[in-house]
Amino acid sequence: MDKLNAMQLFVRIAETGSFTAVADQLDVARSVVTRQISALEKQLGAKLMTRSTRSLSLTTAGSAYLEKCRVILNMVDAAESSLLEEKSVPRGRIRLGLPLNFGLQHLMPALLEFARAHAQIELVMDFSDRRSKLIEEGIDVSIRITNRLEPGDIVRKLGTSRLLTVASPHYLAQHSRPMHPSDLAQHTCLVYSHEFQSTTWTYGLRGKETHVTVRPRLAANNGDALLQAAAQGLGITRPPDFIAQPFLDNGSVVQVLPEYAPEPLGIYAVLPSNRYVPHRISVLIEFLAKSLG
After folding, report:
1. What are 164-191's pLDDT values in tens digits?
2. What's the mean pLDDT in 206-224?
3. Phi, then psi, of 154 in degrees rounded to 5
4. 22-30, long-range: CB within 8 Å, 24+ apart, which pairs?
5. What is the 3-state secondary structure (H, E, C) of the chain?
6. pLDDT: is 199 or 290 the higher one?
C-alpha cells in the first residue's frame, strides 16, 4: 500500500464526509475506496472512522491522525512544488468554480488565453451561480463576486464590480422615477434568490448610508434573468455592472439613483483553506489578476 496515497485518500474522505463523493471525484468504484481505508486501518492497528449507511464520523484516533496527515501532505506538496517551480513549466489539472454570467463574458476569454499559453495545464470549469463547497466538491479555486466573504475564506482579490439600480423606461413612465433610495419601498423590486426572505438594499452618499427594505415581486439566482424581467417592465432590479451594461447599451433599461452608490462587490479567487497552493494555481491567479486589473 502506498502510504502517501492512502493518507491523501483518508483526508479527502474526512473532509467530504463521504466515500461515494470521493470515489466519484477519483472516478473509481466505492468499493476500491473502502478497501484502501480498511487496509490503512489494519496497518495502523486503529479504527479511524465509524461508518453507517447514512453517516461517517472520525474516531478519536482518526481525528488525531487527520491533523498529522494534513501537516505531512502539505509539507510533501510544498517540497515537490518548490523543486518543480525551479525547473519546470506549470503542469497538472485545475478545477475551477466560475460564476455563470461573469465566467462566460469576462473570464472565458482570459482562461482560453491562459490555456493556449500553458499547454501542460488541464482546466476543468464548472459554471454555476450557487456558492460551491470547495473541499467537498474538489474545487481548486472558485471565483466569487461578493461583498460578504465567509470567515476563514482564503482569497486573492482580482477586481471590483459596481451594483447598478435599473428599470425599464416603460416601468418608470408608469410608476415614476425614484429620487431617493427610500422611494424604493414604494416600488416593485426584482431580487436575487438569497435576498428574498429579507431584502434590504443599502446605498451610500458622501459617507452616509441609507438602508431600505424593498418589496420583491420576483426572485432569481441569475442576474441576466432579473435584467430580462426588468426590461419587460416588471420592476426595479440591482445587478452588477457587467450584467447590466448590455441592457443599458440597447436602451431596454436605464439607471436610476446613479448618485447613490451601493457597496461595491469584490471579485475574488477563493482557495480551499486547508491546502498548500500548487504552483499551477498561483500562476493562474496571477494571470487572472493581470487580466482583470
Report:
1. 999 999 999 999 899 999 999 999 999 9
2. 89
3. -100, 115
4. 25/138
5. CCHHHHHHHHHHHHHHCCHHHHHHHHCCCHHHHHHHHHHHHHHHCCCCEEECCCCEEECHHHHHHHHHHHHHHHHHHHHHHHHHHHHCCCCEEEEEEECHHHHHHHHHHHHHHHHHHCCCEEEEEEECCCCCCHHHHCCCEEEEEECCCCCCCEEEEEEEECECCEECHHHHHHHCCCCCHHHHHHCEEEEEHHHCCCCEEEEEECCEEEEEECEEEEEECCHHHHHHHHHCCCCEECCEHHHHHHHHHCCCCEECCCCCECCCEEEEEEECCCCCCCHHHHHHHHHHHHHHC
6. 290
- State the sign of the Cα–Cα–Cα–Cα dihedral 245, 250, 253, 256: positive
Length of the chain: 293
Nearest Cα to Cα of residue 49 among 4, 16, 88:
16
Tell me which of 22-36, 80-94, 122-136, 249-263 is least confident: 80-94
Tracing cell 492512502 back to the chain, one arrives at: 6
Average pLDDT over residues 44-62: 87
The answer on pLDDT for 277 being more than 90 is no
Residue 141 · residue 154 · CB < 8 Å: no
